[in-house]
Structures are given as C-alpha cells and as structure tokens.
Specification:
The protein has 420 residues and is of the alpha/beta class. 49% of the residues lie in helices and 12% in strands.
Length: 420
C-alpha cells in the first residue's frame, strides 16, 4: 500500500510539474520571432498542400465534412485533399457516392490486411498518393478555420529548418450540449491553449494531437510515417521526430471538433488514448539510456511527466481517493501507514494540484467566446473519475487486444456552432 501511495503521489507530481511549467512558459515566454532569413510578406510561391482525412463508417458526418472543407480559402488548384477509406467500408463509400466531390477532393481506398483497420495504417498507405510539399491531417468531424492552410504555409515559411511539424489548436463546437461536453471543452482548451503552448516554447517533446498537425512531407517520409499498430500514432510521432533532432511548434489556428458528450463513448475514446500512451511509452522506454541520449535530460523528463503522469493519475486515482476519506475522518487503509504530519503535507499537495488545474482552466476559457465556461471550471474534479474506468479498460486491452481501435461515433451533436 505504501508503494502504491508513493507511485500515485509521484505521478501527480510529474503531471503537475508539467502543467505548471507549461503555464508559466505560456504566460512569460513570448512567441519565437520569425527566422532572420525570411523577409516579411507572403511566401514567394505558395506550395501545394495535401490533407489526409481518414474515414471509417462515417454515415452521419460525410456530407457535413464536405461542406466544411468547401469553406477553405486556400487556392483550390494548390489543395490536394484525400479522403482515405478502408476497402471494406461500404457505409462511407455509399454515403460519399451521394455527394458531389469537387475536383480538389479525391478518395483513396486502403486494401485489407489481416483485419487491421487502424488510422495510422490507412494514412501510411495514402501517403504515397499525396502531391503536396506540406502534409496535414484532419479527422472526419473536423471544422477547420477557413484560412487555416494559409496560416500553416506562412508559419512554415518563417520557421527554421528544424521545425518539421506544426500543431494547431483543437477546440469543440458543441460545448453547450451538456455538462460533459463543457468539461471536455475546458480540458481541451487547458491543454491546447495553455499547457501545450508552453511546452512547445520550452522546446520539450510535443505529443501531437490526432488531427490538425502539418508536416514537411519529405521529413515525414524520412521518419518512416506512422506506427501502424499504435492507436495514438500522433503522440508516438511527436516523440520520434524529437528523437531525430526536429522540433514541433504551435500554429495560430483552430480546428473545431465534436465533443464526446455521452458517458460510455467518452470512456471508450479515452481508453483508446490511454492504451496508445501506454504503448508509446513502452516502445520508447525499451532502451531508456538511448532515449535519454536522443532527447537530453529536460525533454526526457518531459516524456516521463506526460506519459507516466497521465496514465499513472488515472490508474492510481483510487489510492488518492482514500486520502479524502481520512480528511473527513472516515477510517481508511492509509491511517496505519501515513503519519498525521505527512498526511497534512500530502493534503496541501492535492489542494495545490486542484488550484493549479483551476487556474489553467480559467485562463484557458477566458476568451470572450468561451467565458461562459468559467463557472463550470470548479466542477472539473467530477469530470475525470470516469477516466479510471477508461484506464483499466485500456490496461486490459493492452494485454489481450493491443491493436484494437475503439472507434468514436461522430455526428451525434447536431449542427455545430463555431465561435466568431
């Protein structure tokens, strides 16, 4: 029990330190200036940009997706959008047959292989069909800002050569659906608008989101594409590019998604993410000294803080819940192993962690269009307990079915409302 308590507190400290570092870096460090070699103004020649949009059994979302893509303002002659379908996916194929695709949107069918239908495998196959110098990824339910491609092209034109990937901000277009969608929106804003911004400015490893990241295509090919068996291929790719000596920067653009607002679908989605984090961590920590050499001490610590902190907090949360029993005078297993003085110190630590989370959440939703979420930030401690169920589901699947992709069903929230 003492070892479990130690592990639980360590995971809390790891992730708390990452959030605090990201918070202060976001607030105190200015954005990196443009490279001296790039003169102000538009890029000398606009590049062709390819976008992969993996689809799988998307009956509800396909028509809305095409409408969103048609809002893009980048020159269509330089836009190469590829809808990636599985060969066995008759649902999406029949849905797209009813949609009149513009000339700059095409489909690529991925042949079956031993029943493996993961998103990274599909994207690896479609990678050979891309024509653009820059390659991006969007999900089926995404609603990118109309000028997103221009912002990406402009940022790459100013960035140094070692910046091979840009990560955009992910947000939700249905935060008013219910309490869970509000919590999801607060969580994503906290991560993408505050913590991840700071992590990127500190030069730490950026665990990529599964969408709205853009690569220099030649560098992605150099890295070997995605890990076809990892269900969080994005986080894995973020570590691999950092190990290769490259960097990821945040780009000032937002993509809006559909918040998973129902309890069991939320658990299924979160379990897939946590299982992928477990796989990514185990893969890269097979040779920890080599990882330390590749990343350096600071980025190595960042990897430990993110992956161990995230997974550990969920798996060991029941241990921390015992502290609250003791706080309210209810007997628990901890009474015999933790002296009163140490209990007071740990209680102070837990309160500090909740205050940190609340401060990050308040800052993240302080923008005018998200300010209505501020009263809901104090309820976030009630939002995460379902993650414990997701974590143990992920651990079970890691043992019996590590490559299973527990798909999220999209198109359940109705028509989106995008912030102006």
């Amino acid at each position: 029990m003492a070892l479990l308590v130690l592990a639980a507190v360590a995971s809390l400290l790891l992730f708390m330190s990452l959030r605090i570092a990201g918070l202060f870096a976001c607030l105190l460090l200015s954005k990196k200036p443009a490279s001296d070699e790039v003169a102000p103004g538009a890029p000398p020649a606009l590049p062709c940009v390819s976008i992969l949009v993996p689809l799988f059994k998307e009956r509800e979302i396909a028509g809305a997706l095409i409408r969103r893509l048609q809002r893009l303002t980048y020159p269509k002659a330089l836009l190469d959008i590829i809808l990636v379908l599985e060969e066995s996916d008759d649902v999406t194929r029949s849905t797209l047959a009813e949609v009149d695709l513009p000339s700059w949107i095409r489909t690529v069918e991925v042949p079956e292989l031993n029943g493996l239908t993961t998103k990274p495998r599909a994207m690896n196959y479609a990678l050979d069909f891309c024509r653009g110098e820059i390659l991006g990824v969007w999900d089926a339910e995404d609603a990118p800002q109309p000028d997103q491609i221009e912002r990406v092209v402009w940022h790459f034109a100013q960035a140094k050569e070692d910046v091979v990937c840009l990560q955009g901000v992910l947000d939700y277009y249905n935060p008013r659906t219910n309490w869970r969608s509000r919590g999801f929106t607060i969580e994503y804003n906290s991560w993408f608008r505050v913590v991840l911004q700071g992590i990127a400015r500190l030069g730490l490893v950026v665990p990529l989101g599964g969408t709205t990241f853009f690569f220099r295509r030649d560098k992605l090919l150099e890295l070997g594409g995605w890990d076809a068996h990892n269900v969080t291929e994005d986080a894995d790719l973020g570590v691999r590019l950092s190990r290769a000596g490259y960097r990821t920067e945040m780009v000032d653009t937002t993509t809006y998604e559909e918040a998973n607002f129902r309890a069991w679908p939320w658990v299924r989605q979160r379990s897939r993410w946590l299982k992928g984090f477990m796989v990514t961590y185990l893969v890269h920590m097979r040779a920890p000294l080599r990882l330390l050499k590749d990343l350096g001490p600071l980025r190595f610590f960042g990897v430990q803080a993110f992956f161990l902190g995230t997974v550990g907090q969920f798996l060991l949360a029941p241990v921390l819940w015992l502290f609250w029993l003791s706080t309210f005078g209810i007997p628990s297993l901890l009474d015999t192993i933790i002296p009163n003085t140490l209990m007071t110190v740990l209680l102070f630590l837990f309160i500090s962690a909740e205050i940190t989370n609340a401060v990050v959440g308040m800052i993240a939703v302080s923008a005018r269009e998200r300010r209505f979420l501020m009263p809901w930030v104090p309820t976030m401690p009630l939002y995460f307990p379902l993650g414990v169920l997701a974590a143990y589901k992920a651990l079970w699947e890691l043992a019996i079915n590590p490559f299973f992709w527990d798909k999220t069903q999209h198109g359940q929230a109705g028509e989106e409302t995008l912030p102006q």
